[in-house]
Amino acid sequence: MLRPTVIGATLMLLLACGGDERGLGPGDRIGPARLVRGAAEDVTLWDFCDPELPEPGVYERACSVPSVDRLRIGPGWRASSTEALQAEWGELDWHLSFDRQAIDLEAFGTLPDSTLADGRVVREWNVTVEGLTEGTHRLRSMMDRDDQTYAVTWVVRVGR
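Above: the chain's sequence. Below: its structure in token form.
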């Protein structure tokens, strides 16, 4: 017969290992907001918050966004050419959370690559938030590439 402490420890281990490690997917909610696959024409956080990180490291940035129906929040990677982007993208290990909720980036996929005004090519994860409430939200993105880590928290103030 198993002792209660062994059963309790086993249940805790199973609960810890049995959860969805990947995070929230399209249609899931964070409070009243809902995560969806977006579109290139959605208002993007990156129009208001500087996405450029000069080098690997840990960053915190603050920015303000007006109230909008849909806000695209998926991070991305920029490279000098389509070929370079394709080669580099496969080396990247991404993690994203919004308001402390992990997001399953693979479930959202990416937007089509686009070319920036400076000629670089960007690929972004296709994560959009609908029904985002006014107030302060936190977007945490971490990306590992070889032995380099880029970790950034954007403190986003939505509304007036």
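The first helix runs from residue 4 to 18.
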